[in-house]
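User: I've been trying to design a sequence by hand for this structure and keep getting stuck. Would you show me what you'd pick, starting by listing the structure so we're on the same page?

Assistant: Good idea, let's start from the same input. This is the structure you sent:
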C-alpha cells in the first residue's frame, strides 16, 4: 500500500489549474497553426493568425489564454493500492482555490444555480473519480468555459438511428451554436451508456489529444465524417465564415441498453484546455 498526502494533491491541482489556463496542449496549438496556414478565406485566415498571436502572448506574458478561465473539471484515476492521507475531495478543491486565487485566474463559479452568488475562489470543482488498478493517482484538470459549454447538447436517440443521423445531429449542433462558442471548435462526442454517462463521455472525449484518433477504425472514420460535416456549416473562425469551423472531433463510447442510443456533443472552443499529471 502506497501513501500519498492530501497536500501533494493540492499542490498538483493548483499547478495544473494555472498551467492549463496559460498553455494549450501542444498538438492542439499545432493544429490551430496548421489551419491558419491552410485557410483559404482572407478574413478567416487573419482571425486564425490573431489566435496564434494570442497563444504566443499568453505564454510569453504568463497570463491566461482566455478571459474565461472556466469551471474546473477534474478527472481522477485513483489506484486501488493507493492510500490518500487526508480528505481527497477537500484536497482537490483546495488546489482549485489556490490555483485560481493565487494564480489570478477569473473565478466564475456561483454557489447556488438559481440564487447565484460567486463563491470567490472557483470552487467547488466538478470531480469525476474512477478506481483503477495500481498505486498511482492520475489527475487531469480541464478548465471549461461556458461560452462553449452552453452550446452543448444531448439527445436520446433510438437504436434505429443511423450513422447519418448521428452526423446530422453533430452538424446541427455546430450550426445552431454559430459564433457563440468562439470557433474553431473541438467537439467531444459521447455515444452510449445512459443519460448521465453519455454526457460524461463527451466531456472525457475533450481531454483526449486531438492528434489521437479513436483506436477502433470504425469510430475513427466516424470522427472524420463528423469533422467534415461540422466544417461544411461554413461558420468559420469566430463566426465570420471560412473553411475552419471545427478543428477535431473525438468520440468516446460505452455499451448501452437495447432500447436506447444516447448521444451527447460537448462543444469546446479553440481553447480546449487540459493538462495531466501522475502522482
Amino acid at each position: 500500500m502506497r501513501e500519498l498526502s492530501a497536500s501533494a494533491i493540492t499542490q498538483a491541482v493548483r499547478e495544473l489549474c494555472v498551467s492549463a489556463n496559460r498553455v494549450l496542449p501542444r498538438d492542439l496549438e499545432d493544429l490551430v497553426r496548421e489551419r491558419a496556414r491552410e485557410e483559404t478565406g482572407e478574413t478567416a485566415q487573419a482571425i486564425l493568425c490573431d489566435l496564434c498571436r494570442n497563444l504566443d502572448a499568453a505564454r510569453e506574458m504568463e497570463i491566461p489564454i482566455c478571459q474565461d478561465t472556466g469551471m474546473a473539471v477534474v478527472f481522477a484515476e485513483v489506484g486501488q493500492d493507493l492510500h490518500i492521507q487526508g480528505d481527497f475531495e477537500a484536497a482537490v478543491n483546495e488546489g482549485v482555490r489556490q490555483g485560481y486565487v493565487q494564480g489570478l485566474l477569473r473565478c466564475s463559479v456561483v454557489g447556488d444555480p438559481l440564487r447565484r452568488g460567486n463563491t470567490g475562489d472557483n470552487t467547488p470543482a466538478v470531480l469525476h473519480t474512477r478506481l483503477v488498478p495500481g498505486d498511482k493517482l492520475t489527475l487531469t484538470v480541464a478548465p471549461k468555459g461556458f461560452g462553449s459549454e452552453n452550446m452543448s447538447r444531448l439527445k436520446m436517440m433510438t437504436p434505429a438511428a443511423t450513422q447519418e443521423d448521428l452526423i446530422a445531429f453533430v452538424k446541427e449542433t455546430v450550426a445552431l451554436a454559430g459564433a457563440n462558442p468562439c470557433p474553431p471548435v473541438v467537439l467531444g462526442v459521447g455515444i452510449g451508456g445512459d443519460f448521465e454517462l453519455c454526457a460524461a463521455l463527451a466531456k472525457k472525449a475533450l481531454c483526449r489529444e486531438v492528434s489521437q484518433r479513436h483506436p477502433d477504425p470504425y469510430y475513427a472514420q466516424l470522427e472524420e465524417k463528423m469533422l467534415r460535416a461540422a466544417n461544411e456549416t461554413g461558420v468559420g473562425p469566430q463566426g465570420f465564415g471560412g473553411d475552419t469551423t471545427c478543428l477535431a472531433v473525438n468520440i468516446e463510447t460505452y455499451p448501452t441498453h437495447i432500447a436506447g442510443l444516447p448521444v451527447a456533443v460537448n462543444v469546446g472552443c479553440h481553447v480546449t484546455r487540459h493538462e495531466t499529471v501522475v502522482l
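That's my pick for every position. To get oriented when you compare it with your attempt: The chain has a mean pLDDT of 97. The CA atoms of residues 82 and 135 lie 4 Å apart.
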